[in-house]
Description:
The complex is a heterodimer. Chain A is built from 23 helices and two strands. Chain A is mainly alpha-helical. Chain A has a two-stranded antiparallel sheet. By secondary structure, chain B is α+β, with helices and mostly antiparallel strands. Chain B has four domains: 201 residues, 3-Layer(aba) Sandwich (D-Maltodextrin-Binding Protein, domain 2); 127 residues, Periplasmic binding protein-like II (D-Maltodextrin-Binding Protein, domain 2, 3-Layer(aba) Sandwich), CATH 3.40.190; 71 residues, CATH 2.40.50.320; 71 residues, CATH 2.40.50.320. Chains A and B meet through helix 3, helix 9, strand 1, helix 17 and helix 22 of A and helix 3, strand 2, helix 4, strand 7 and helix 7 of B.
Amino acid sequence: MFEALMQGLTALAQPVPLGWLFFGVVLGVWGGALPGVGGPAQLAVLLPFAMLMEPVNAIAFLIGVTTVGNTGNTFTSVLVAVPGGSGAQATVLDGYPMARNGQARRALSAAFMVSMLGGIIGALILFGSIPVMKSVVRSFGSPELFMFTIWGLSMIGTMSAGAPLKGLSAAVLGVLLSTVGQDIKSGVIRFDIDQPYLWDGISVVLISLSIFAIPEMIALAARKGRVAEVTELGEKGILEGIKDAFRHKWLVLRSAAIGTWVGILPGLGSDVADWFAYAHAKQTERNTENFGKGDVRGVIAPESSNNAKEGGALLTTLAFGIPGSTSMALLLIAFVGVGLNPGPEMLEGELHYIMIIVVALVLSQILASGICWAMIKPAAYVCFFPFYILVPLIVGLTFLSAFSAHFSILDIFALLILSLFGYLMKVTGWPRAPIVLGFVLGQKVELYLWLSVARYDMDWVWRPGVMILGALIAFTLLWPVWKARRAAPAAQAAQ
Amino acid sequence: MSTIHDHAREMIAGRASRIAAAALVVGAGLAIAPPAAAADDFYKDKTLTVVIASRAGGGTDTTGRLVARFWGDTIPGKPKVLVRNKTLQVIAANDLHLKGHPDGLAVGVFAGGGTLGPVLRGSSSVRYNLLEWGHVGTVDRGPSVQIIRKSALARLRDPKAKPIAMGSVSTDRTQDSTAVFGAEYLGWNLKFVLGYPNSNAIYLAYGRGEIDMFGSGTVKILNRFIRDEGAVALVTETARPDYPGVPVFTELLKKKNLSKEVWSALRQWNGAGAVDKFFSVPPKTPQDRLAILRTSFIAATKDPGFMKQAENVFGGGYTILSGEQTHAAIAGAIAQDPEGLEVIKRLRAKYKLPPVSRGGKPKVAVTFDEVQRDGRVLLFKHKGKAMKLRVSGSRSEITVAGKVSPRDALKTGMTCLMNWEKRGDRLEARKVDCLAKVKFDEVQRDGRVLLFTHDGKKMKLRVSGGRSEITVGGAMKPRSALKTGMTCSLNWAKRGDRVEARKVICP
């Protein structure tokens, strides 16, 4: 393996592959920063060009494009509450309040630092798991994946800002919204209310934009102000952000581990890595009363996990030659197109290509964070743009992003209707994160429960992995209660 | 196959003299392209969008992208080729049919199982008519191969052992019919696990040990699982030279002396396999552009680069069908008489698979040229052929405008939806659902509400965008095509506290 690593390093450490890597990173960051531009859509456009390249250059370029989107999409999440991508939704919860408090630079700096660290951790886990890749992926079947989705739903309480019943109701609504559209196994179209537009279901892009972005822009326009409610951004914000990353190094590590695991499990997707990490942070960290109001840990956790996920996702793709997500599928097509054979053949006979992927992944994370750091200072001034400049700009970008859901004008109407609902939730104090989490997990809950019962009847409940995850869920639910009970006597004594 | 070029040459010759005079007036060096050459130049500076009706990474996606890579260079004008994915087959097919612009700039890529299968099953989600599409061509990867985990072989014919889990998306593919008929007639001890979102999920499930059996036509996948994942090829759908020695499923069934209804059922179920991955454009796409796409499709698949990659991914047994062949194959699959339909229904019910609605609802719209003997004999034309059907007083189910009626309610000139079956040496009507011919007094809200008078009673009907099937001038249309004053044939059904149109046929 060491020999393959040296071989891979030598192949990549040439001007041309490094040049392609840099170009890919620039495109990936740019695509991530613009809502609706990056992700699989961007990759699909670049694919034909990549397939004309030499294998090493293609790997460098594609890894650069694919794995840094979650770094670039932090800008809009923090500065204007527009989730730049499906992996940046949770970042909005604390990133945007930090920007409003004049701490945009700190939030961005911390995000990019942990994105780099999380991505490197994910790459290292990928490297370390090469000998046991297949065993790792094989450990998780539909029952275990179902339990993971339940674990995700169990975290709703932590995101309900002291209103657990409202949070639960919002989550249930999110799950119900996820059932709209055609059911794959039976072909039945559900809850389409006579609208062919809904046959394909509601897009997660529309949900996240309408729940977060538009309501925040309406609120900004209503108060006729700026994003930042202070007059100074704080010159030391960037340095403070870097320190935050190391101050909370264990949270970075745990979140990266969560992200890598979510990436390994095909079918869970980028949508949930950040939520899982955010909820985990809220449950396990001390003094979490400021989560949702601008706590830097609420930025660190999701940003670390959504970059670490890339290493995990590559694990399944490389171990089996079978992609676990759309981005990985496109990446795989490109690899095959340039003559590579991801899968056992590559593990046995072309290990140096895997090493090239690992090294490219590490370098991409470092480069992307570096590029984004360089943009923090000018980007942070967006917080001082007056509302009459910012709101139309952001709303326009949001509409563009929404249109990318189905490339239909009805996407805009759907955005407006859902945004009204999102705004009502905001003004009436309903927690909004649970509805998004319920939505992204809803389809997976149904799918994996169905498959579990179809395959194992009710015997799936007794699988070891299921029971371990069940215990983890119980711990997740009971730990905050126990913690609160333990703190209560001390609080009473203090009074 | 260069019909477009022959066509262009004819038109150019006829107009050359007029164009030459105009060219002289305008000046040297100004070439006025004759209208006939516009077809050839149409794709210049344009983008051809290939919409793949599946997620990225599966068989349909791989096939579509492979063709797309080589297609742009073979189309006159060398347009850019952009590939997009649309997740669900039926939804993508509905979109192509109802919303697709017939301009030749978008081509859908579909899988026979996922698109033709629901049609054969009579799925309520189907809003498209494959026979109205312009078919460009097909990449047929070859017959599917059923593979099974070696360690599970011992349980295959042991009904007392734990059933072997067979994974699939739904039940519309030929590998699904192989599994079902294998379970029923060859004694395979199977448990069907349906609902995997796509082929990749099935492969991963096998890799995880969740399922022990699946079918595929992709040689690369099959060989990898056979080589590295402890699988063996159990049966092939039909003989494959790249899998010598593997039993052919139909040969195994022949040894069981099955009835002709069972064979008919197998043919019917496998109808979805008539085409594998096919490329099509929306209805009413201009013929000249369709011809360009057809010609260039064949040329792209003959590119040495394509052939090399196709062999790598599909194996050597893949074939290419032309657009005309694709259309014929689809028409043949849809037109099958449902002799084995009862067998299919029984099997699906027994193995708890999604049911078949075909045959349960009338499918063919006919207008009676003559009704004889008080409704006992119907004469009409179907597909250009004169038909004579008997109507039984007890076995034939007759409804007129939604109301169960005796056969003497059938009259000459009525438009009805019906199906029939052979009974002895005669054809006998099974279900006859006659539509009421009405004139719309008013059409409100863009076709959502119809007001008319029927049998002296004023009626108000809702028209659903999803459930009501509307045909105007022989083509499926959205409800906004319905206008005040139109005379149409329709039927309806109660839905909650409202009455909703089911089928509306307007001239």
